[in-house]
TrEMBL record:
Top class in the EC scheme: oxidoreductase
UniProt cross-references to SUPFAM superfamilies, sorted A to Z: ALDH-like (SSF53720)
Residues in Aldehyde dehydrogenase domain copies: 1-197
Alphabetized UniProt keyword annotations: Oxidoreductase
Signal peptide (UniProt feature, chain positions): none
Organism whose genome encodes this protein: Perkinsus olseni
Name this protein carries in UniProt: NADP-dependent glyceraldehyde-3-phosphate dehydrogenase
């Protein structure tokens, strides 16, 4: 459940969800039911899915972003409330592009749903962000998967699963304001290695060093 695991406090948490317009209502209704069922509470309790955010300050920041989106005309489908550092899992619809809830990293339990009709246009819309780390794409069409791979401005593409997946051996990282370089054993070793060059021309050999 890519938007809400770790209470959304992951850089590859799902924040913007584009849904094909002909199945939008069906998907959103199912999401509302599922999100409302997520249990909030003590993270030490195995039945808890949504725990506290890292601090009350961060929860207040997210609350302000949601209120700003509501003031700009979005619809709260569920959630949006805060108690201290606990923030309810929140699903918004029709979020204006210029709001913090849409454009800035939420780093909390927030998901914004939007309709799309044309696939190429939604890829362009996904690129309309200063961030670009991971994208999840659900499709039965391999051509669309490769179109997304060739055109998305992102460090990783996960086909038929949420973007909130990584393995330590993967070249994990993003583009634009999502950072430079890649995590992963091989790639971390390369980043910490000083590459040097030695050129040799017209030299003989000697027994002495």
């Amino acid at each position: 459940f890519g938007a809400f695991y770790q209470s959304g406090q992951s850089c590859i948490s799902t924040q913007r969800l584009y849904i094909k317009e002909d199945i939008y209502d069906e998907v959103v209704n199912a999401l509302v039911e599922k999100v409302k069922s997520l249990r909030m509470g003590d993270p030490k309790d195995e039945q808890t899915f949504i725990g506290p955010m890292i601090s009350e300050k961060e929860a207040t920041r997210l609350e302000a972003a949601v209120k700003g989106a509501v003031g700009a005309g979005c619809t709260v489908l569920c959630g949006g409330g805060r108690r201290g550092s606990m923030f309810e899992p929140t699903l918004l619809a029709d979020v204006p592009d210029e709001t913090d809830a849409w454009r800035e990293e939420a780093f909390g339990p927030l998901l914004c749903a939007a309709k799309f009709g044309d696939f190429e246009e939604v890829v362009e819309r996904a690129n309309d962000s200063k961030y670009g780390i991971h994208v999840g794409l659900f499709t039965n069409d391999i051509n669309r998967a490769f179109y997304a791979w060739n055109n998305l401005q992102t460090g990783g593409l996960v086909v038929n699963d949420v973007p909130s997946i990584r393995v330590d051996s993967m070249p994990y990282g993003g583009v634009k304001d999502s950072g430079i370089g890649r995590e992963g054993v091989r790639y971390a070793m390369e980043d910490m290695t000083e590459i040097r060059t030695m050129l040799i021309k017209n030299v003989g050999t000697s027994d002495k060093i």
